[in-house]
Amino acid sequence: MAKRMIIAARRARGAHTVAGRSATRRPVQGQKGAKSSESAKRPTASRRAAKPTTPPSPKKPTLQFSWVIGSLKLVAPVNYQASMLFKEVVTGKGAAGYRRWLAVGRFRDEAPTVSFQYDDTFVIRCDVPEGMELSDKAIAKGLAAFLKADAATKKPIGTPGTGTGPGGTGPIGSNP
Description:
Distance between the termini: 95 Å
Structural class: alpha+beta
CATH class of the largest domain: Mainly Beta
Largest sheet: 4 strands, antiparallel
Low-confidence stretches: 156-176
Shape: elongated
CATH topology of the largest domain: Jelly Rolls
């Protein structure tokens, strides 16, 4: 009788006898007699719950700057709301800076074209993507960053027809 009680107790705990030896069976999570989740074996990769994925955030539109060293027909590219030229000017106090010289916009498929005659001065082109704020503050911040990055390259100033502008960057003297 005592032997039957021991066998019944083992079966209740999940133990059983195989080929004359005592073997224990691990309880599965959720079954009677399962251990707490702290001491239970980790689930395998196939049993793990899939983590919810977040879609990648859309890339924030950025201003596109390039040097101009040749005459061109200025038109805002597709998916851009405006295209501007900034020309280097010297103030009465002798300080140099860049001022907006020419700007064209785009609305859907309508985009005017304006001719620009290059005159051996430093000119920067800025294309403003759709969905970006068209403010002096935003453009001035982007222009300052472009000039700082260009000064860091320390490349020689290009000449017309070489395909490189001051600093050697960007598409020059042609429509995008």
